[in-house]
Specification:
The chain is of the alpha/beta class. The chain is built from nine helices and ten strands. Helix 2 (22-32) crosses helix 5 (150-174) and helix 5 runs parallel beside helix 9 (268-282).
Length: 285
């Protein structure tokens, strides 16, 4: 009982960190290891960009030692609730000059009603160099708040930096032959990925992982014809019938998770690398 009590007390003494998306949770966990509890509270079936936290959710976030934000208009709920300013970290504050401005698009998802894309592309982590900048901001905040020993954070940051740089270099090499090739995406979330690797991506407004209806398939057929695109990026895997329907239009399907949530069976790095490899494999040589 004494050992159990000590274990529970140790767990309660750990720093508490809350993030607004999976990539930031992954980066924070890499930097902090077992020295902190890092949570990402959004349910798997809810788009974290537009999550609406309950009162209990907000109380739990407020109690954290560090609240890690993405910035760039992601997780709009943080602007509508009262959060301790001293605990907030906007990981993209230093890279605002690298944001991509988009058209403001209002549309609906099944999990949150109508919403707007706010006129900013927010999936920064799909460019590993921007993810690296976010990671560096996170490491600095952890050290400034004494949430982990400086030397431990520095060592973990160096390893994570090397991993992200290797991921970026591998993607550059794998996607080099896609320059000038137009891709179609089921949702407008690949802006930073496209810019980083010199890709042309045109987007639709499909529900993630859902079977497209006849009107959406007709839209896709017209878009494919107009752009001469032959590759379709899905942000989540749809029913097999969806792949069959789009393949019948002459499109090669690639599931490229946007990673706001984790994907079963792989870490951030593993999932990203796998998606890049899948895209490179179907691209015309």
């Amino acid at each position: 009982m004494i050992v159990l009590g000590a274990t529970l007390a140790g767990a309660q003494d750990r720093a508490q960190v809350t993030t607004v998306n999976y990539p930031l949770q992954y980066f924070a966990q890499r930097l902090l290891g077992d020295g902190a509890q890092v949570t990402f509270p959004v349910p798997r079936d809810v788009d974290p960009s537009f999550w609406r936290p309950s009162i209990a959710d907000i109380s739990a976030v407020q109690a954290a030692d560090l609240i890690v934000l993405n910035g760039a208009g992601f997780a709009t709920w943080v602007d509508r609730v009262s959060l301790p300013r001293s605990k907030l970290l906007n990981t993209s504050a230093a890279i605002k000059d690298r944001f991509i401005v988009t058209e403001s698009i209002t549309h609906s998802h099944g999990d949150g009603g109508s919403h707007s894309h706010e006129g900013l592309a927010s999936y920064l982590w799909l460019d590993p160099t921007l993810a690296l900048a976010q990671t560096e901001a996170l490491a600095a905040a952890i050290v400034a708040r004494s949430l982990a020993p400086v030397e431990d954070v520095a060592a973990q940051l160096a390893t994570l930096q090397a991993d992200l740089e290797a991921l970026d270099a591998a993607a550059q090499s794998a996607l080099d032959h896609l320059t000038g090739v137009t891709l179609i995406a089921t949702h407008p979330r690949y802006h930073y990925f496209a810019r980083r690797y010199g890709l042309t991506v045109v987007s639709m407004e499909w529900e993630a992982g859902a079977m497209p209806n006849k009107a959406e398939l007709a839209q896709l057929e017209a878009l494919s014809r107009d752009t001469e695109a032959t590759i379709l990026l899905w942000e989540a895997e749809p029913p097999a019938a969806a792949f069959e329907a789009t393949a019948a239009l002459g499109l090669r399907n690639v599931v490229f998770p946007t990673l706001a949530h984790s994907v079963d069976g792989g870490t951030f790095l593993e999932t990203y690398a796998g998606a890049v490899s899948a895209l490179a494999d179907v691209a015309p040589k």
